[in-house]
Amino acid sequence: MNFQIGNGEPQGIFGMADVDGELKYFPNLENFDEADYQYLRERVGYSKNKFIILIYSCILWAGKREIKYGECFIDASLELINQHDFEETNETYGIVNIIKNCFVNARKTKYKCETVKKIIISWIQNEDFWNIKFSFVSFHLIDFVLTQKNNFKSFFQKLDQICWDIYSNIKCSDNINVSLNFLELGEKCSNKLKNDNFHWKLEMSKFYESKCKSEENPLVKSHFSCLPLTHIKKQINI
Fold it and tell me: pTM of the entire structure?
């Protein structure tokens, strides 16, 4: 079936604006009847493919609100998460989305919520991911936790420090965008926490200065040379 899952809910992969300009996705559950849902129940019952079970159980949970399938979705998600070996980055992107959707539905069903929460926290804190290749794991999960402040409480207080530590690990790499992304995410965390221990914009200016010094292309060098002052002004609210 041509569905993807976002925020714990199935969504058709094809989008089209209706006559009012509102974006509609197809296929959608409005066109499902009981025969369709019964077919999905049967597929979930005998399929060995965890991705199929995950998608179909999510549709059943969203469309019929049968708790059995909400729990089935979480069990299938956890099995895929626990089996993942982190060798392929594209697959890991998918697993990160699975764990976010899993947590959303774990909260709704009150099923294995703490289990999923512990995995999210452990992945964010796992320093094996604090590198250019896998820093997206921490990045997307921290960004997700920012939307779930009340569900993470004490751990939430550590997020800006973690962003700073990851940035410190990767800032010497050639991937400028990833380093800047963590500076921006860290600033976002500090703003949520009302924490002024980190000077994110000042660090951005220092980062640009270092890139300016190491860059050989005169046009790129000129571009970088203009950016530090902008961030310094923002830091001191000029």
Answer: 0.84
